[in-house]
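[audit] Reproducing an earlier prediction to check determinism. Same input, same settings, fresh worker. If the tokens differ from the archived copy the diff job will pick it up downstream; this log only records the rerun itself.
[audit] input (450 residues):
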Amino acid sequence: MNLFSLLQKRTAASGPIRVGVIGAGKFASMFLTQALSSEGIHVVGVADINLPKARGAMQRTGWPEERYAASSLQDALKTGGTHLLESSMELIQLPEVEVILEITGNPIVGTNHAIAAIDNGKHVIMVNVEADCMVGPLLSRRAAAAGVVYSMAYGDQPALICELVDWCRTVGFDVVAAGKGTKYLPEYNYSTPDTVWDYYGFSAEQLESGDYNPQMFNSFLDGTKSAIEMAAVANGTGLLPQEHGLSFPPASVDDLPTIFREEAVGGQLSRRGTVEIASSMYRDGTEVPRNLRWGVYVTFEAKTDYAVQCFAEYGMHTDSTGRYGSLYRPYHMIGLELGVSIASAVLRGEATGGSTGFHGDVVTTAKKDLRAGDRLDGEGGYTVFGKLAPAATSLKANALPLGLAHGAKLIRDVAKDSTVSWDDIDADESLVAVQVRRELETEARAGGLS
């Protein structure tokens, strides 16, 4: 509750927190527009391999040109300005930078950045959930050993869900389910970057702003992003995914305590202590009233009859038994809220959510019949989508994690809706991300990372 006052004291005593941003897309833009007026944060540099994109992000988010005209990182440190650069490693290796925001969305590159940042003594805010759900447990452990914080990004849904779960456990309720809302219909699993805007209905003016990447937005639609985020939540909380993954039942905020409970008591969960998504669409394509499309939730059960009585006395909306309740947040503001993670890491030494074990995974699934020689295009593309699975199920199937499906070449055919396995691809063992993932799987099979 005193994070802002701590930030004020820190700024008065030793200046603002010095931050390096890697990636200049939508999430970064949302952070940058807030950082512009935050006296407690100094964006020393913004690194992106596409410098015009970085300049466009600064212009679009309200930055006066003189604020990001620093000729070098050293110049930025001296003047309090911001330097735009192509080299992420130059930014990571700058001793004065305290926090690295990894916002590329590329799991292979993001793994490299996180490791380099940790090894250079930086706190890492891992906006890159794609990398986190793939190798997060090992990155989190590596950061702890180095004495730095490895954290989920506050404002993104996984961190907000973890916060609700933490609240629930701290006050003594049993966590039944946790998750978020999204727009989902089964047909979306097969959407491609060519069809995505038809489903979203964005205007031409919105698309021309430069913020909208069709492959990334398609991953939100085809179920991949939901699987990624719920795997991250599972790994951050110990909640175990259902064996079938996600069902996306339609649910309003009023339905949460009834639908997100076990089948044995009339709900739609195959187990308690799990993650699930509330669809904002009924299966006939109509919109669920009072839906949770932009929000997050936790469903919990009272442990005593007296607590049930208190639910009733204080107007808690419950299921028919009066024992199950839900708490939800209707919106998340993505990069606009990222300052919470930065301040928490530096001033409290605490992560706003982070991997504590390997409980959930995102398995690569064919969108269509694939042939030997085809090259996979990863998250939100034309060839595959991600499905959530318990980590043990993924390991048993030798499933290829979705994060490594970017550019992987098939060496044998894979039928539509089938899981792509390690045995189906020609893996590039020289990639650091592949090596770290292999290490995680080996350790998990040996009984570690639980």
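[audit] rerun output stored. Observation attached for the diff report: Residues 129-146 form the longest helix (18 residues).
[audit] end
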